[in-house]
């Protein structure tokens, strides 16, 4: 099976002229010319990016999904290829309803009529990894039932093995092979695809996002019914709404498009900066609009997470970019450790200015946040910085949000919407509220650590290791300083409270 699959891949690669990607290295340039001569009858009039997209579509759903993942790696892919691959859509025939029922009953250990009062045999959606059926529970609750494709794992493993071979060839035979890091990209796709095969992971993502936006007036997230979930089956609340890409239907339903466009931006920044947990696949196919003008999120297979340092890095860079403080952008890169410490700040500052200054000759309403972040990544690459995967996901999601927002409201000024949010977040993190929150968070750890420090120091003394002794002494002094600082802050706060009470 793998041999026949390999033969088909070779036929498609040469049929669409993709050998130009593989045979760009100087050592095989002669072979490339020979192939061009032998296959001179090929029609290669279409742009290379379009030919690549058509080839992936012909190779089937796993390669289509790989192309979708590649389209998010704009830090590696040329823009023409990334833009073309973003057009790839899952177009996979559904598998038989009898097969779906068998998967459900085997996974949940009960007969279908015990699980559901009604189950629609015809799926409402079908993709490369799973398909969705509409059903109704015995309590009357309408639900969406997502069912994993049976026997999908062997197909995935076979195609991944061939992708690894192609990645090695690309790295060795292409002029850009090493820069594109094809083996790392395939490994990333491997992890992503295997994560998607566990629908319990998607259920957990949906639950977390729902908890984050419970009672929100901007976003609805369906409830997950864990009694009906397993690795191969995911059951959640059925959501009715208008697909966000159907502008005419939204207008006919009386939706406020300007409010929707603003909501999209605010939801994105709330997920990123408040929660550090964001829906990273927010293309129009995964978003509906409810009758009350709220968004409905669907499909939670791809989620991005950000640490506190990631969030601080992003906020500082966004604010510095839009005030044209390129020196602060450069120092933020060095402070974060993403750029070698020996990098000259002035050199990085000049590089950032050269790339970004032309962008700001436009009105703010025409500036793309996503493009600014992309330019930042391009500049970082010149200084041998490997961009973190979570920030690549963020940049891709930001481009989706921008495109969606400006489709709803062409006059959307993303910066006007985002600036107050970023300023509030920075104030909350750096101001007195942030200090009190950090004190509250760290106080229990200090309370538990301080009483045992003498015993820990005694153990170090008994070991008679000079290095350990010095480390313990330094740790003790550091904890003493922190305790003194904490006591000082508490004393200042108490003094302030007493003064306020006395002045009353």
From TrEMBL:
Keywords: ATP-binding, Cell inner membrane, Cell membrane, Kinase, Membrane, Nucleotide-binding, Transferase, Transmembrane, Transmembrane helix, Ubiquinone biosynthesis. Its main location: membrane. It comes from the Bacteria. The active site is at residue 281. ATP binds at residues 124-132, 146. One of its GO terms (molecular function) is protein kinase activity. One of its GO terms (biological process) is ubiquinone biosynthetic process. It is a single-pass membrane protein. SUPFAM superfamilies: Protein kinase-like (PK-like). Residues 87-332 form the ABC1 atypical kinase-like domain. Pathway: Cofactor biosynthesis; ubiquinone biosynthesis [regulation]. The chain crosses the membrane at residues 485-503. It is found in: Cell membrane. GO terms for cellular component: plasma membrane. The keyword Membrane applies. Its EC number is 2.7.-.-. Belongs to the protein kinase superfamily. ADCK protein kinase family. Belongs to the ABC1 family. UbiB subfamily. Is probably a protein kinase regulator of UbiI activity which is involved in aerobic coenzyme Q (ubiquinone) biosynthesis. This is Probable protein kinase UbiB. The gene is ubiB_1.
């Amino acid at each position: 099976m793998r041999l026949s699959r390999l033969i088909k891949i070779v036929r498609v690669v040469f049929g669409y002229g993709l050998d130009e990607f593989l045979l760009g290295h100087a050592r095989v340039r002669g072979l490339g010319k020979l192939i061009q001569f032998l296959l001179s009858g090929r029609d290669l009039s279409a742009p290379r990016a379009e030919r690549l997209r058509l080839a992936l579509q012909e190779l089937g759903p796993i390669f289509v999904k790989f192309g979708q993942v590649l389209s998010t790696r704009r830090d590696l892919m040329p823009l023409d290829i990334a833009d073309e691959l973003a057009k790839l859509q899952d177009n996979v025939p559904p598998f038989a309803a009898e097969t779906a029922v068998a998967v459900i009953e085997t996974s949940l250990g009960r007969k279908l009529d015990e699980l559901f009062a009604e189950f629609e045999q015809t799926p409402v959606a079908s993709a490369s990894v799973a398909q969705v059926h509409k059903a109704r529970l015995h309590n009357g609750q309408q639900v969406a039932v997502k069912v994993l494709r049976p026997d999908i794992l062997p197909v995935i493993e076979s195609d991944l093995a061939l992708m690894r071979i192609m990645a090695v060839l690309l790295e060795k035979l292409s002029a850009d092979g090493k820069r594109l890091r094809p083996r790392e990209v395939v490994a990333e796709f491997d992890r992503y695809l295997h994560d998607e095969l566990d629908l319990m992971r998607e259920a957990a993502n949906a639950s977390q996002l729902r908890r984050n936006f419970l009672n929100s007036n901007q976003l609805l997230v369906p409830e997950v019914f864990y009694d009906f979930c397993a690795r191969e089956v995911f059951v959640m609340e059925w959501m009715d709404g208008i697909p966000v890409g159907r502008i005419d239907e939204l207008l006919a339903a009386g939706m406020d498009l300007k409010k929707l466009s603003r909501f999209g931006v605010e939801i994105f920044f709330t997920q990123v900066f408040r929660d550090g947990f964001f829906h990273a696949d927010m293309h129009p196919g995964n978003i509906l609009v409810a009758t009350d003008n709220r968004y409905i999120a669907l499909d939670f297979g791809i989620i991005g997470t950000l640490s506190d340092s990631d969030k601080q890095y992003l906020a500082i860079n966004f604010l510095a970019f839009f005030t044209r403080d390129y020196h602060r952008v450069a120092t933020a890169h060095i402070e974060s450790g993403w750029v070698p410490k020996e990098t000259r700040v002035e050199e990085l500052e000049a590089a950032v200015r050269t790339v970004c200054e032309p962008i700001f000759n436009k009105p703010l309403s025409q500036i793309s946040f996503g493009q600014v972040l992309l330019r930042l990544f391009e500049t970082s690459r010149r200084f041998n910085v490997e961009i973190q995967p979570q920030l690549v996901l963020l940049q891709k999601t930001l481009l989706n949000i921008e495109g969606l927002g400006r489709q709803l409201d062409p006059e959307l000024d993303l910066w006007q919407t985002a600036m107050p949010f970023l300023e509030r977040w920075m104030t909350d993190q750096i101001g007195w509220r942030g200090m009190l929150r950090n004190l509250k968070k760290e106080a229990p750890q200090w309370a538990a650590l301080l009483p045992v420090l003498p015993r820990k120091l005694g153990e170090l003394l008994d070991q008679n290791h000079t290095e350990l002794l010095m480390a313990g002494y330094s740790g003790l002094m550091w904890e003493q300083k922190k305790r003194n600082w904490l006591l000082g802050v508490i004393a200042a706060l108490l003094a302030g409270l007493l003064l306020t009470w006395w002045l009353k």
